[in-house]
């Protein structure tokens, strides 16, 4: 294979985290006197990191900004507390993830997670699902100054793994992964089962769409 490193998105790609994210988001809304939102709506608000999720969830609007900094601060504190309490409880690994990670490991490539999720929620999830040892780099939403769709986290992961972007393959579920990878000069695959902020994955500018991480490993082996 022509790749030396694989960069994985987390939410919507390796793990289905929506049930826990939605529980915490609605617990926050309740604490702030707001009615709960459907899980399907909340799923479209995930992808640009926790502060953005809190903002969208408080406003119930994907484009909204919360003008009241006090409400935002209360929301962030509340969401964080509730998400810490449930993080991983109802999350599941997607089919093909374990087989795919094992296949990439057998191929001898280095692997990293590049997620917009904050470190405090990411590391416990990787450990809980027993996949932490696959990754020699973990780049989270609070690791770099910029989050995906900025290329900075992808480029930082390449530096951590000591692999040039031209030899890296990113795998994600959303526009944030596709834009970040392309801007970094990294080949990118999309999986269709994630969130993508509610949009069809076929709208993404990616090198290919694969049905699972196991299929991504087969795709990479053919390159
Ligand atoms: O927390 C988020 O916004 C989602 O993180 P992701 O980059 O793993 O999809």
Automatic annotation (TrEMBL):
GO terms for cellular component: cytosol. It comes from the Bacteria. Pathway: Organic acid metabolism; glycolate biosynthesis; glycolate from 2-phosphoglycolate: step 1/1. Coiled coil: none annotated. SUPFAM superfamilies: HAD-like. InterPro entries: HAD-like_hydrolase_sf, HAD-like_sf, HAD-SF_hydro_IA, HAD_2, HAD_sf, PGP-like_dom2, PGPase_prok. Its cofactor is Mg(2+). GO terms for molecular function: metal ion binding; phosphoglycolate phosphatase activity. Its EC number is 3.1.3.18. GO terms for biological process: DNA repair; glycolate biosynthetic process; reductive pentose-phosphate cycle. Mg(2+) binds at residues 9, 11, 173. The active site is at residue 9. Keywords: Calvin cycle, Carbohydrate metabolism, Hydrolase, Magnesium, Metal-binding. Pfam families: HAD_2. It catalyses: 2-phosphoglycolate + H2O = glycolate + phosphate. Homotrimer. Specifically catalyzes the dephosphorylation of 2-phosphoglycolate. Is involved in the dissimilation of the intracellular 2-phosphoglycolate formed during the DNA repair of 3'-phosphoglycolate ends, a major class of DNA lesions induced by oxidative stress. Belongs to the HAD-like hydrolase superfamily. CbbY/CbbZ/Gph/YieH family. PANTHER family: PHOSPHOGLYCOLATE PHOSPHATASE (PTHR43434). This is Phosphoglycolate phosphatase.
